[in-house]
Amino acid sequence: MAILVTGGAGYIGSHTCVELLNQGYEVVVVDNLSNSSRKAIARVEQITGKSLTFYEEDLLDYAALENIFSREKIDAVIHFAGLKAVGESVQMPLEYYHNNITGTLLLCQAMREHGVKNIVFSSSATVYGRPETVPIREDFPLSATNPYGHTKLMLEQILTDLYTADPEWSVMLLRYFNPIGAHESGMIGEDPKGIPNNLMPYITQVAVGKLPHLNVFGNDYDTPDGSGVRDYIHVVDLALGHIKALQKMEGRPGVKIYNLGTGKGYSVLDMVSAFEKASGKPIPYKIMPRRPGDIAICYADPAKAREELEWTAQRDLAQMCEDSWRWQKNNPDGYGNE
Ligand code: NAD
Ligand code: WQD
């Protein structure tokens, strides 16, 4: 079976390519490298000892997509490609809507032209907006507070409408919680450009000496220690969730929605101590005001994925921290250091 992985050079995409190749799938990647490196592809091949087909192309280029679907016999698509920085999406809404929405529309159009009707889509816990209670179930109300979140909500709707119009489509909407960690080899991992927005890459850059201290955004939330609580999930567990989704969708049209999280919540200060323990490095921090738009607590009810996909996250917080640290320590400048 050949799987087209859009955004396959990115953080979650590269880890998913490793697991796909390990399980014997043929992998075709399309990525414009706007937020990633070709080196990630080479490392995926090194880790697995297998090769994949890589197209450095933009989803906004329909002729390029046409060419890929004509040349490759694709059975299903895992669609990661997109812009993902919440703050940037507020500053650059047109770029976010254009890239994420138009890119997906063109992808789906090319899929339809070539009779490929199986898609696994990267959605996000951000679609739950400000949940009233936790743990968060898939049937909770949906909302968005920024353009990035709106693109995820809109794309969930667009893919659902596609199935309504043509019930041969099989659509898996996977709502990720907070992916962290890296492949245990330390050869691939998250490589943010500039100063990281997200907690774990910020912590690892403090540990390696690139940033002086962590800013903890708020210690006055209604949580056990006052800092924000999230459901951190190891990126390899997340990658394996995609393979379960592919297996379950085979021959079963419909739209299915799953949370991919662990069901456990950890605070920012929990993360600091877990990371210090795993790395042996002190993480100095300063308490700062709350970050606008943040919520106090967010964690998944992962029961539906456990029951229907037969998937649960296996890797604990210690392993997430150890693997994030191995990647950062071995690659202090990410993929840019070779
Ligand atoms: P990433 O930026 O590392 O990977 C996305 C990849 O898509 C990059 O390699 C980028 O170059 C590529 N890309 C972007 N626009 C493209 C286009 N027009 N054409 C071709 N390639 C394009 O991000 P990630 O963390 O791996 O996230 C993957 C997906 O998961 C995204 O859709 C993101 O919104 C979603 N998601 C991520 C998180 C997270 O915290 N990392 C959480 C929830 C959902
Ligand atoms: C986690 C916690 C921060 C950085 C984002 C997106 C979400 C999804 C995952 C894509 C919060 C605190 C952070 C720092 C801090 N992405 N923090 N200092 O905000 O839960 O989710 O990424 O879909 O849509 O919004 O993740 O890692 O930014 O923050 O104190 O320097 O760490 O306040 O409590 P978040 P995060």
TrEMBL record:
Transmembrane segments: none annotated. InterPro entries: NAD(P)-bd_dom (IPR016040), NAD(P)-bd_dom_sf (IPR036291), UDP_G4E (IPR005886). Residues 4-323 form the NAD(P)-binding domain. Its cofactor is NAD(+). GO terms for biological process: galactose metabolic process. It comes from the Bacteria. It holds the Pfam family GDP_Man_Dehyd. It catalyses: UDP-alpha-D-glucose = UDP-alpha-D-galactose. Belongs to the NAD(P)-dependent epimerase/dehydratase family. This is UDP-glucose 4-epimerase. One of its GO terms (molecular function) is UDP-glucose 4-epimerase activity. The keyword NAD applies. Its EC number is 5.1.3.2. GO terms for cellular component: cytosol. It is an enzyme of class 5 (isomerase).
